Amino acid sequence: MAPIVTDQSFCKSAGATITSLQPNGAQYKWYNSSALTAPLASNYLLKDEIYYVTETISGCTSPSAMVTVTLNDAPAPELNTDGQNFCGLDAPTIAQLSNNTNIPSSVVWYDAKTNGNLLVPTTPLVDKKKYYGFDVLSPENCLSYESLEVTVSLTDCDVVPPDFFIPDGFSPNGDGVNDIFVIPNIDFLFPDYTIEIFNRYGNGMYRGGKDKPGWDGINYETNGISHGIAPNGVYFYIIHFNKDNKPPKQGRLYLNR
After folding, report:
1. Share of the chain above pLDDT 90, in %
2. Among 27, 39, 74, 228, which is most buried by a count of CB atoms within 10 Å?
3. Neighbouring-strand partners of residue 194
């Protein structure tokens, strides 16, 4: 007697193999041809095709039974035009990224294409980070086999808010409070900015930008008398915004240990 079987379905993204089929056991052999010429290996990835199974008991092999396998899948999400661009001042989240796709109600996001962590809608977006979106097929609850890869930018800020300010001092004494001179939110507003800091003699103390955003009060730029830990006192900066022809800004700050 042929094995008793039913047609079966799987999520394509699950990577189901021959061992996923039922019935399962050493006595069963699976084939993708009615000729039963060669059994399929246990790691054979299932496809949308017809399979045949036989059962061998005490050296006797049964007639084959036919099983139709269906792999459920959905297309990858699609990103709206410029949907990767946000302003970091708005504190955008995964939910906003979902809203910038063609399937905002069913897309889910992970931090890696494979074996990633599911990101909840309230997860804050990070500048230049990659996110991977999958559609969820209902009611099978299958993730789409293909994903949407998005590299987020948080520098799409057109308006400088009135509360944007440049601090006039800091205290690098190691107490964890105001130890580094940084300009809040400048990375979002002026992503290509550069800053230089000088002492009162005009010696360069620090050069920075988005990839080197804060000064800790140590001069790494020169050797000699100005090298090392900067003493208390007034220092001068010049900021090149490098956006919309905004002119450079000069100012002073006070270092107090």
Report:
1. 88
2. 74
3. 209, 240
The Cα–Cα gap between 228 and 147 comes to 50
211 has pLDDT over 90 = no
Give dist(CA 130, CA 151) in Å, integer: 4
- Say which amino acid occupies 50: I
d(CA 202, CA 158): 34
**12 touches 72 (CB < 8 A):** yes
Phi, psi at residue 14, to the nearest 5°? Answer: -75, -15
Residue 30 CB contacts under 8 Å (≥ 6 apart), including other chains:
18, 21, 39, 40, 44, 51, 52, 53
* CA distance linking residue 232 with residue 173, whole number of Å: 11
* Residue 226 in this model has a pLDDT that exceeds 70: no
Give the whole-number percent of the chain exceeding pLDDT 70.
Answer: 97
Rounded CA separation 252/15 (Å): 61
Please, what's the largest Cα pairwise distance for the chain?
97
Q: State the Cα–Cα distance between residues 246 and 216, nearest whole angstrom.
A: 27
> How many C-alpha atoms does 131 have within 13 Å on its Cβ side?
30
pLDDT of residue 225: 57
Which of the 8 DSSP states describes residue 37? -
Examine the pLDDT at 140 and tell me if it is beyond 90.
no
Give the Å distances, CA to CA, from 214 to 22, 88, 187, 218: 61, 18, 11, 11
CB of 72 closer than 8 Å to CB of 140:
yes
Q: Residue 66 in contact with residue 51, Cβ under 8 Å?
A: yes
